[in-house]
Each structure stands twice: as C-alpha cells, then as structure tokens.
Specification:
The protein is of the alpha/beta class. The protein has a single domain, classed as Dehydroquinase, class II (Rossmann fold). A five-stranded parallel beta sheet has the order 2-1-3-4-5, with helices on both faces. Helix 4 links the parallel strand 3 and strand 4. It is globular and about 40 Å long. The protein starts with a strand and ends with a helix. It binds 1,3,4-trihydroxy-5-OXO-cyclohexanecarboxylic acid.
Length: 143
C-alpha cells in the first residue's frame, strides 16, 4: 500500500505564480503539487489549501489521528507567525508535522523570524522554494 502524506497550504498560497513572484517564484500551487506527485510515485500526496485558520485546524484534527499518514507537510503562510491555535492543533495530534516555507523566512522581516508552530513540529525547512516541500517529504519518508 502507498504511504500517504498530506500537504497543507495556508493563506495566500492559492495565489502562487501570481503572488510576489520575486519572492515565491512563478510556479502555481498546482504546478508544485503535480511535480511532487510525479517525483514520489510511491507516495499518495493529498493536498489541501485554505485561507481560513479554522479550516486548517479542522484538517489537522481530521488527519492527525489517522495512522495511515506518514505525516503532514505544512506551509502555514503568515499563520506561522501568529497562530497559537494552529500550534495547539499540531501539538494535539500524534501525526508528525513538518513546517515548510518557500522563502527563507530568517532572511526577511523580523516578524517572520518567529514561528509559533516550529516548537511543536518535527522540524522546519525554509528557503528552498518548491524544493522545501520535497525535502519535507523526504524527511518524513526516512522514518
Ligand atoms: C511563507 C512565508 C510566510 O512568512 C508568508 O507569510 C507566506 C509564505 C513561505 O512559504 O515562504 O505566506 O510561508
């Protein structure tokens, strides 16, 4: 049976390809997800995007107790820097969550240097563009 990984993208990531391409690149979210599916044919890569904090939390609750998932790759967008509720949801579930960012958040404005979710994630990957997702999947698969 294929291993399953859920890739969750938070606010404004639906605009990838059109949104600040100098920072986030020209690929759309669909392009990135399609490339990941092609790169990991042995993995079922499900994906979910929402601009709403509560919807992201509901999704983590839904999948976070399902041991058929090898893990969750989460780009929480700006909620990374603000959402204690999202951090609590990650802490509440046994499924491993890897934090990812396309941009190097530590090379950007100071407010982006703080991640409320990092302490409750298995690890964080930031700054490799679309490759950040690939590295996160590899990290989950090596378990
Ligand atoms: C981001 C970085 C966040 O600071 C920002 O709010 C985003 C995208 C990234 O992937 O680089 O929306 O998570």
């Amino acid at each position: 049976m294929k291993q399953k990984i859920l890739i969750i993208n938070g606010p404004n990531l639906n605009l990838l390809g059109r949104r600040e391409p100098g920072i986030y690149g020209h690929d759309t979210l669909g392009d990135i997800m399609a490339r990941l599916a092609a790169k990991f044919p042995e993995v079922e890569t499900d994906s979910f995007q929402s601009n709403h904090e509560g919807a992201l939390i509901d999704k983590i609750h839904e999948v976070g107790f399902d041991d058929s998932y090898a893990g969750i790759v989460l780009n929480a967008g700006a909620y990374t820097h603000t959402s204690l509720a999202l951090a609590d949801a990650i802490a509440a579930v046994p499924v491993k969550v890897v934090e990812v960012h396309l941009s190097n958040v530590f090379a950007r404005e100071e407010i982006r240097h703080r991640s409320l979710i990092a302490p409750v994630c298995a690890g964080s990957i930031s700054g490799f563009g679309a490759k950040s997702y690939e590295l996160a999947i590899r990290a989950l698969l090596t378990d």
